[in-house]
Amino acid sequence: MVFWLMFTVVYLERIGMKVEKTRVVATRITNKMAELVEEFCRRNGYVNVADFFRDAIREKLQREAPELYRSFFEEV
User: Fold this and answer.
1) Segment 13-60, tens digit of pLDDT
2) C-alpha span between 68 and 57 (Å, rounded)
3) CB 46 within 8 A of CB 52
4) Is residue 41 within 8 Å of residue 49, measured between CB atoms?
5) Residue in 37, 32, 61, 35 with CA at minimum distance from that of residue 49
6) Angle separating helix axes 66-75 and 49-64, nearest 10 degrees
7) CA–CA gap between residue 19 and residue 15 (Å, rounded)
8) At what angle do helices 49-64 and 31-44 cross, to 10 degrees?
9) Which ranges constitute the DSSP H helices of 1-76?
10) Distance separating alpha carbons of residues 50 and 67, to the nearest angstrom
11) pLDDT recorded at residue 63
């Protein structure tokens, strides 16, 4: 697994794609909420639950703090 990840990063850098560093952000949710999220992901074509949470965070920031969201990505 680690080898595959390293290979992927090297490949992406070689073809000119920027590889951003990431950070794990964790939270606890109830079993019932987890089941709801998993079912939603299955029905709506999300690759996995993490993909759903990234999308949900992005949507919330764009909707409730659009100026902050835009300025953050303009600085990068």
Assistant:
1) 667 777 778 888 999 999 999 999 999 999 999 999 999 999 999 999
2) 13
3) yes
4) yes
5) 37
6) 110
7) 11
8) 90
9) 2-14, 31-44, 49-64, 66-75
10) 25
11) 97
